[in-house]
Each structure stands twice: as C-alpha cells, then as structure tokens.
C-alpha cells in the first residue's frame, strides 16, 4: 500500500518549461478573462503564472545557454516550425474547448489546462533532449539495449520482490493464535473484538491449605514450617490430577458447616469453607506461618517497601482509609483526589460540565488490564439500567474492535466523555486506542481535548500529552498502587461515579473488609474459582500477576455468570468438573436477593425463578462434592456497592496473605515485563525488516522510473519527429 502511494507520488508530471511572455498573454486572451487578482479566474491564473514561471531543472537559466548545451543537432528552422505549430495548436485547443462547452473560467478547467500544458511542454522538451542524445553516434543503440535489459530485469525482479515482500509481511504479522503463544497473557476484551484468556497452566498446583503447606515446605527452609496436614480421608492421585476423600457423613458435614461458616452481618457476606478438606490440626500447624504473613501485611500497611524489586510501597489499603497512609502528604493526595472525582462526576452528571455539543451522554474508557478489568466488573455488577452516562470499553489494540465501539457510538461521539486510563501512561494498546479515537474525533469534526480525560501517573507520557493538549481533566494514579489493585483509585472510582454508582459505599465496604481481614485468620480464602464472569476476569489478573511466579499455582477454568448456571454451559461445566481431571476447587458466589423488593414474581405457586437458581447451585455443589470436589461458598445478601467493595478487598487481602505464606512477592510482575519487552523487540524487528524491504523496493522502483521515463521519452520523440 505504502509502495503504491509512493509510486503515485513519484509519477507526478515533470516541471514545465517556462513559456515566453507572449505565450502567456496569448493564453490569457484565449481564456477570455481579465488577469486581475480578484477576478473569478484570477486565482487560477495566479497559479498558472506561478507554475509557468517555475524554472525547469532541465532548462537552466537562459534560453540561449540551453540552446547551446542541449539543442545541438536540431536545426533552427525546425525549431521555428515547431514553435509556430505549437502556438497555433494552443489557440486551436482553447477554441475546441470552448466549442465543447468546457467552462474554462472554473478552477477545475484551469488546473486541467495547466497540467495539460505542462505535460505537452514536458514531452516536447524531453523529445528535444532525446533527439539530442540520439544524435550522438552509438549512444541510442547502447541506451536501447541497456534500457531493454533493465526493463526485463526490473519486471522480473520487482514482481518477485513484491511477492517476497508480501510473504515476509505475512510472516511478521503473526496470526492471533501465534500472538497468543508469543505475547504475555491478557484478560479478555470487553469491546467486542478478539479476546483471549491465558492458557491454563499444565502443572498440577496446590489448591488447598493442605497442598499449600506441602509447597511451602519445599520452597522454604524455615524451621517453623508446619508439617503437611493429612487429608480427611485416604487420598489418591489420579491421572495427574488429585482425588481426596472429603467428609461425607451429613451430620459431620453439618457440624463442619456450623463451625466454619464465617459471617459478617454488616457487610451481609457469608463464607463457607466447610467443604474444603483441611483439619483443625493443620490450621494449628499453620499458625506461626500465618502470624508471619499478618505481620508482613501490617508492615505493608505502614508503608514498608513491600515491592523491593521496584522499590515501591504498596498502598491500595490506604485508598479506602486514608488515615492509614504513612504520611500526611499521601493522605492529602488521596483525599483531594477523591474530592475532585466526586466534584467532577457531579458536574458532568448535572450538566455543569458539558461537551461542545451538549450534555455528556456516554463514556468511552480506553485502558487495559488493571486499567480496564475493575471498571468493567463494577459497571457490570452495579451500574443502574439507565445510568446517567452509559459506558463502553476499548481494552485491546484490535482495530476491528475499536471501530466497532466507535461505530456503535455513531453521532453520540459528540457527547462522549473519553477516559484514557494508564498508570504508566505508555502502554501501547492504550496509546493505540487513544490515537484511533482521536482520529475518529477528527473525522467527525470534533475537538478531542474538550472531551478527553486522563487518569495516569503525574508526568507520564499520557499526563504530558493531556496537559499540553489541554484536555478536559486529569486525575492522578499513584506510584504506590498497582494496576491490578487500583479499583479503589481514580481508575475505578471515576467511571463508577459517572455511572451513578455510590463510590463512597464501595470504599466503606472495602474498608470494613480490610478491618475484618487484618487479623482474622479464618477469613483467609485460599485459591478459588469464581462464578461471576467479570469478577473472575478481574480476579484472574489479580491472582495470576500476583501469584503466578515461582510455580504455576492453579488451573483456572473458564467461569460462568451466576445467571448462566441454569443454561447449557452449567451442564457442561458439571460434567467436566465432576468427572474430568481433578486439579481445582470451586468457589460458588451466591446472591440471596433475586430482585429489588416489591418486584418478586412467582412463576409457579410459591416458586420464583431465583429459587431454581438456588436449587441449581446447591445441586451442583452437592454433585461435585459427592465426587470429592471441594468448594468454598461466598454468599452476599445483595450486590451493592458496599458488597462489591468488600469482595474486592477480601480477595486483595487473600492474595497478599497467600503470597506471604508461599514466600513470593505479590506486587511485582517480572513475567509481564518480560512479555512486554519481548513483544516490543518483535515489533521493532518487524519494523526494521519492513523498512529495509521497503527501501530496497523504493530504490528499485526509482531506478525503474528513470528507465521507464527514458523509454517513454524515446517513444514520444519518435512520435513528435513523425509529425
Ligand atoms: O495502566 P497501564 O500502565 O497502562 O498498564 C495496564 C496493564 O498492563 C499490563 O496488562 C499489566 O500486566 C497490568 O498489570 C497493567 O494493569
């Protein structure tokens, strides 16, 4: 494509030879219009004049000098004859145009006339040059042979090279499947474009406290390391997976349930771990290790450098309780940011802040990974059916996905608030999304800066861009908050507030859960599966980037939405989970309230749709348990901002504690960085290869152009001589 454009650019007409003043006058008279600068044709003539006065590099400074150097061999009589014939032809040409009704006083006609005249003049000069060359003995024959040879060589070479080029391009643009293998795992796309999930790890991984202790023992030489707990019954390895006998006696299971059910009344959350195969003795053995993990967590909350690899504090807990922040500067930052988020979203919703075309009606969020998954989950879980602003996401660099989002917005683009989210401010996918959306704005004649908002670290590339271009607003992202734990920062709070979600309640829920999980050992939820689609995507990133390090931790399964439990997917899941390879445990998430109060409806006497859902969940859990598949059940009364905040906080804490237990740093991501670096290298190499190929092709095409030009001039000169 670039080649074609370049070739077209190069095939422009040669510069025209200056005409004598008398010829210019003749032309003006022929056009029949005044030469005044303000006359309708003044502009066209001005352009014509400019073109006509251009000096041809082929002609030199003076007419006489040119004649001496180049026109040797052409008789002056012949020249005079040709000039006379040329003038007569031009006058006749204008007459002919007038006869066929071409409006010569329009801009188009002038351009056509200028280009036509230039072409005729160029051919005329070229023919004279060629005639001059032709008059040198032997030169024409040699040039013919060389020209013919080059033409043959070029044609074959160019065609071959072209196909090679196409081949190489294909080779260096890996298919989605290849990309999946080469690039770091990312969570799926919510924008309708290609999405992919991380491939499931192959190694068998610990999936309960019992397993955890085994791994911990092998990875740590600590003297106080506990001995592994025994499963509740005889265990048996099974085809690379595991099978452990769990408590089957209903009375004992009930006792376990009563003993191990955790409930937090204020948050309306219940966690049932009774169907996990751990024992009281095991927990006692784990106690010292757990205490160390909690001590490490306390240090982290006080501002210790919890991410030594990157020399960073880890402060997502301060976001929901600024009093915890280690100094007043940070506390102040958190509070002022929250205030500005609330004020800005209030002003946008009330219409105090508007787009140039009126009230904002939509949000287009551009970001990836930690800068997308939290906002997506919260929107899906909490946004009202008719939010003040509807939200869309671009979370991939798939052009078709981006086009789809922009097309879906249509004219609403004029009232769309674009929130660009990137902690680093330089993530390529996000940058690409921004550039694409900015182009869409330009194409629609809209001014992006009046509708753009940036959420990023201060002084990042994105921050500088937004500042220089004067975007509508900028909100800070803090160095000490990781992308995957940033939902309670501006990243998650601003989009949520703009959708009318009570972000203060989310913060309260998270703070309550933080408080609860700070010291309570039995609230630790270990590796889990989830049944809320977007929560699990969000958690997938949290878990995989935090814990997928020294060993492959667990096998993730695709997950279903709670609402999907009654459809075909649930049936396939039961089949796979109950009878397939056993290297997992399940977390069920149950929501007690079906519908808002007053909206309940019984589809059969005494039975609601939600009762079926409850029955399916219980049945699935029992069927799995009967075949030794363990599970945790998390029950929330209702999906409220407080409950969602609490769930996020619960899993953030669980991941942090788990990381301490197995001695890994939960807060860095060397694998992600390595993947990004490798992807960058591949892209750079691809660019280099294409540049080299293009340059080679361009060089050859330039040469070809000269040869073709030479041949064309030769033909023209024969044609001209004929007349
Ligand atoms: O917020 P950004 O700097 O643009 O990074 C966005 C995301 O990039 C990658 O996917 C990382 O693995 C994530 O941890 C991060 O959240």
UniProtKB/TrEMBL annotation:
Question: Where does the record place a coiled coil?
Answer: none
Q: Which chemical reaction does it catalyze?
A: alpha-D-glucose 6-phosphate = beta-D-fructose 6-phosphate
Alphabetical list of Pfam families matching this protein: CAAD, PGI
Instruction: Give the UniProt keywords, A-Z.
Output: Gluconeogenesis, Glycolysis, Isomerase, Membrane, Transmembrane, Transmembrane helix
Residues spanning the signal sequence: none
| Entry GO CC | cytosol; membrane
**Which GO molecular-function terms appear in the entry?**
carbohydrate derivative binding; glucose-6-phosphate isomerase activity; monosaccharide binding
GO term, biological process aspect, one: glucose 6-phosphate metabolic process
First-listed, main subcellular location of the protein, grouped into a coarse class: membrane
The segment(s) forming the Cyanobacterial aminoacyl-tRNA synthetase CAAD domain are: 107-163
Q: How does it sit in the membrane?
A: Multi-pass membrane protein
Positions with biased composition (Basic residues): 175-184
What InterPro entries does the record tag this protein with?
A: CAAD_dom, G6P_Isomerase, Phosphoglucose_isomerase_CS, SIS_dom_sf, SIS_PGI_1, SIS_PGI_2
What pathway annotation does it carry? Carbohydrate degradation; glycolysis; D-glyceraldehyde 3-phosphate and glycerone phosphate from D-glucose: step 2/4
EC number of this enzyme: 5.3.1.9
Location of this chain's protein in the cell: Membrane
Asked if the Swiss-Prot or TrEMBL record annotates the protein with the keyword Zinc, the reply is no
Q: Where is this region: Disordered?
A: 175-244
**What is the superkingdom listed in this entry's lineage?**
Eukaryota
Membrane spanning segments where?
Answer: 112-133, 703-722
Spell out the family assignment given in the record's similarity comment: Belongs to the GPI family.
**Name of this chain's protein:** Glucose-6-phosphate isomerase
